[in-house]
Each structure stands twice: as structure tokens, then as C-alpha cells.
Amino acid sequence: xxxxxxxxxxxxxxxxxxxxxxxxxxxxxxxxxxxxxxxxxxxxxxxxxxxxxxxxxxxxxxxxxxxxxxxxxxxxxxxxxxxxxxxxxxxxxxxxxxxxxxxxxxxxxxxxxxxxxxxxxxxxxxxxxxxxxxxxxxxxxxxxxxxxxxxxxxxxxxxxxxxxxxxxxxxxxxxxxxxxxxxxxxxxxxxxxxxxxxxxxxxxxxxxxxxxxxxxxxxxxxxxxxxxxxxxxxxxxxxxxxxxxxxxxxxxxxxxxxxxxxxxxxxxxxxxxxxxxxxxxxxxxxxxxxxxxxxxxxxxxxxxxxxxxxxxxxxxxxxxxxxxxxxxxxxxxxxxxxxxxxxxxxxxxxxx
Length: 352
Fold this sequence. Notes:
Layout: E1 9-14, H1 18-28, E2 34-39, H2 42-48, E3 55-59, E4 61-62, E5 65-66, H3 67-77, E6 83-88, H4 92-102, E7 106-110, H5 114-185, H6 187-205, H7 210-221, H8 239-249, H9 254-261, H10 282-297, H11 303-315, H12 321-329, H13 332-339
Parallel strand pairs: 1-2, 1-3, 3-6, 6-7
Antiparallel strand pairs: 4-5
Helix pairs in contact: 3-4, 5-6, 6-7, 6-10, 6-13, 7-9, 7-10, 8-9, 10-11
């Protein structure tokens, strides 16, 4: 920074010899923009040093104590400010032993040559200004980081709010489409709601949560949505294609579209589009297992029916064997019972 725009440096001079203090003050004033304050004892110096300063120059032997006491007091308020101790030759050993207590930047022998004292204080001022500049840069950097963090927090909150709005809007679309399917298929859609509830309970058992779970439930609820756009003379095989087209036009998320589009696909590749294995959307694979089980149970809830349904699942080659194993081991009927007490992510027929 240009010296013209710098505030004057505050130099604290502690010297009990009045004549020497005046001479030192005149000498240090040659350093340029400096304010030099002179004190003659430890007590007055301590009071002055309660406020920040740039450089301290103190005599060692003072009427009410030592310069080391002054340096120690200074360190408490301006730890980064250089502290210079000036002492007579006869006191040199004593000052050296005490130096760590005051953290002196330099110890100068007394009498001290003018050039040496001026150069030492000048060097101390330069160091202090560099330290202040680095501190200001660090503070500016920290402020910048705080501003970025605050901006990111605001962005996160805004994004979260928008995300919630999008999810709420999507759920309204799902409810509207669900009612449209209900009006067309009546009791058949009631079974779809049951299917989605059981599938959700099974998906939760598999550790699926959050958005993925919502997408699976919504995809299963809407897996026949293509019927809304299908003409009476068109093949049921078109259901998944028409469903995906309709969901795309409505801007529904792709993960829901994938579930609807993969309905009718078989794990062994014998489905409509010949997709196979994990290339089929997880929601569609869960739907296939749960649907097969519920159809086989046909409203029954006895052990014999469950056993027969599980045996059929285990024998099926078109179902995901890992999902079948998980479903059978945990007794599929338990998911059906659990689903009756589960509040769905997307209310369909339960709200008016």
C-alpha cells in the first residue's frame, strides 16, 4: 500500500531519562508517518499498551520495574507488534535471561548508535505492516468464504424449496392420473393401489428410501396409465409405450417413466421389448414379483396359499431370482399385512 494512504504508525517509547527520550523521539520521527508516544515508567506504559500499537521501544531499567514487564504487558494486547528492549551494557546478561518473558524482537545495547536504532525500528515497522497486510488478506479471504457459504446455504434452501414444490406438483399429477385410471377401470385400480402398497413395503425392506422409493410407488400406481390414451381397438401391448409418452408430455421424472416403460418385461428377456436382468427398472422387477404373488394368493391369507404362491415364485424363470428370494425368505404375506398400516407417499383414493 502507498505510504500516502497509510495511517500513521503508533510507536510507544518507554524511557525514564527525559533528555534521552526527547532525542530518541526526534530520531524516530525521521521514519515518516509515525506517532510517537513517550512514557517514563512501567505503570503509565502498561496503561498506554492496553490499546494496539505498532512498535514498542523500552528501556530495561525503569523507576518502578523493568522493561521486560513492559514487553510482557505489550504482548497481551498486540502479540504481533515487534518489541525492542534497550539496556546498558552492565545489564546485558540480565536482559538476555529475561528476554523470553517479554518476547523481544531485538535487544540493543545502550548507548545505541542512532543509525542502528533507526534501522531496527524501521525494520520492525516494515514487519508489522507486512503482518497487518497478511492478516487483512486472511480476514478478507475468510469473509469471502463466509459469503460463499451463505450464498450456498441460500441456494440450497431455494433449491430445496423448489424441489419440494416440484415433488408436490408431481404428486398432484400422479393423483389426477390415478383418478383417471380409477374412473376407467374401477375395482381393477383398487387392486393397483393395493399392489403399490405391498410393493412399497417390500422396497422398504430392501433398504430403498427417499426419491427412489417414491418413484417406484408412483411408477407402480401408474403402470397402466397408457390405457387413458389407448383406443379400444389398440393392443394392450401398447400400454407401456403409451404410458411413457403420456408421462413425458407431462414432464414426469425419468425414473417413474422407466418403471412404467418396463412393465411387461421379463428377467429372462422374454418380454415385450426383450429387456433382461438388471437392465429392467428395479420398480418394474419388484412389481412383477409382488403382482405374481398377489394374483396367486387371490385374496386368501392362509399358510397353504402362501406356500403355493412362494413355490410358484421360486419356479418362475421370468422373475428376478434375488428379489424372489428376499420376498420368500421374509414371507411375502408379511409385506401385505405391513402395507395395510403404511401411509403412502402419494395419496390416491384416500383423499377427496
